[in-house]
Amino acid sequence: MATKVKLRPRRKKGEKKNQVTQERLAFQQCSSFTRKLRAHSRDFAELPRLGPANRSFQLLSTTAMSSSSSLFKQLGLAGTGSPLSGRHLLLILLGAGFLAFTVFVVHPNEFRIQSFFAGSCGRPRAEAAGVPHAAATEVAQAPDDDVRVLIGIQTLPAKYERRHLLRTVYSLQVREHPSLAGRVDVRFVFCNVTSPDDAVFVALEIMRYGDIIVLDCAENMDNGKTYTFFSTVARAFNATTTGAAAGRPRYDYVMKADDDTYLRLPALAASLRGAAREDAYYGLQMPCDRENFYPFPPFMSGMGYALSWDLVAWVAASDLARREQDGPEDMWTGRWFNVAGRARNRYDQAPRMYNYKGASPDSCFRHGFVPDTIAVHMLKDAARWAETLAYFNATAGLPRAGQLYHLPPPAPAGRP
């Protein structure tokens, strides 16, 4: 059975030219209409600050009263012979009002009036340069998950040179990574200052830098200094934040660190960002040699370990911690949590936290530098500090300004 084919009637002479002329006229009318709408969107931007509903109503009223008749005439929608009645015009106005309500009240962020009218009629619009829409949406909806850390570096009042070095190192890290400012705070911690000379110099440091905590205790390393640090911090910084993060503790973590530990703050913050904010115990877990020390109770190495804020508050209120202060401070901190059944979220950062290797053999807690390092411990002298800082390119930002810096050429970059 043959298939019937319906032939298109032949176009009359001149009909194609008339059609092109009509399409061009319609395009010009549409473009004129768009320019009118853009003008009204600018008028809307200049209106006084009103509530969303009042602003939408004022825009709709202004548009309807000032230009509805002229726009309808330009589009051929009004006048004698127009297919639109007054009821049709009313429905169009109501639809426009609903659109304005949706744009400015329901979805003010998803629909931007400027971009809504930015395109031209009947023509494809190129994508705007910049972040893709999907990525922009993810940024806008990203929670405030930036971690806040207080790092207490335990040191001695007379160790001015070491504090000066650490201030320089960490301030340069913050300069290179501005997002750390206000998120990671470094403080130097020691007990009561007994030397009159040290009291003068420490007072000047406090006045100049404001980064020192003087605990009310006799100077020591393993007789309660760490307990006094955590309990003092819990009382001094117990206020919560305000604004969008209302009710959140000022710090998510408090870290105790030694002054012979080099911390890479960006790596530390990135690592903590993915950890739990409660009942969390973070560091290099010891003993890492399970064969020789099992079942020795686990603890985090004193080189540097962090506690979530709730554990800091628990230490300050715990009778167990207050009674058992005398002993190796890192082991005793782990003992508090082991006995009390606390710190269920434990984060072992081996091999990213380790001791300086030097000439010693490799072990589970001591090895050579690695690019994704968080902390290097046992930097007991200037030579070890210089080697470590050179490996991690700490001087990469040194300006090369003419003849001002007569320094030897930098050592080859240690990091890949």
Automatic annotation (TrEMBL):
Region (Disordered): 1-21
InterPro entries xref list: Glyco_trans_31 (IPR002659), Nucleotide-diphossugar_trans (IPR029044)
Biased composition (Basic residues): 1-15
Superkingdom, taxonomy of origin: Eukaryota
The protein's annotated pathway: Protein modification; protein glycosylation
Compartments in which it is found: Golgi apparatus membrane
Cofactors demanded by this protein: Mn(2+)
Top class in the EC scheme: transferase
Pfam families in UniProt: Galactosyl_T
Keywords of this entry: Glycosyltransferase, Golgi apparatus, Manganese, Membrane, Signal-anchor, Transferase, Transmembrane, Transmembrane helix
SUPFAM superfamilies in UniProt: Nucleotide-diphospho-sugar transferases (SSF53448)
Molecular functions per Gene Ontology: hexosyltransferase activity
Residue spans crossing the bilayer: 89-107
Bilayer topology: Single-pass type II membrane protein
GO cellular component: Golgi membrane
EC number: 2.4.1.-
First-listed, main subcellular location of the protein, grouped into a coarse class: Golgi
Entry similarity comment: Belongs to the glycosyltransferase 31 family.
Stated name of the protein: Hexosyltransferase
Source organism of the structure: Panicum virgatum
